[in-house]
Amino acid sequence: MITAAIPKSTIGTFTNALTVTLVIAIILFIIFSLISTTGLVRFAKFERGTEGLRFKEILKDMSKIGFVKIIVTLIVIYIIAFALTVVIGLIGLIPYIGVFIGIFVGVPFILLFMHRAIGLLYADA
Q1: CA atoms of 13 and 48, how far apart (whole Å)
Q2: pTM, rounded to two decimals
Q3: How far, CA to CA in Å, does 28 sit from each of 35, 36, 63, 86?
């Protein structure tokens, strides 16, 4: 009933603006995900916080490894992490003990898996 009061052109404009915003957000997420991942690896490698902010060196490392290889690896890591999250969520449905298993075993396992995979990717460079 409320939507009948909104003009069709307004709904169309809103839908278009939302679509453009979503596409831009996804592109920015991918770019910042690539840069932040490489920055974290540089920070861990050189043990200095400023190394994670040197964008020229980050881009050199990324080009040395290969942008396609990084993107494909991150997509695979995110898919596996999502699947593990679903499994841990199902384990969390077990009364009492499931929540503790999820929090104290599942979440650390996912984090270790993700960071180990990213470390192995950058060890090739």
Answers
A1: 47
A2: 0.71
A3: 11, 12, 19, 26
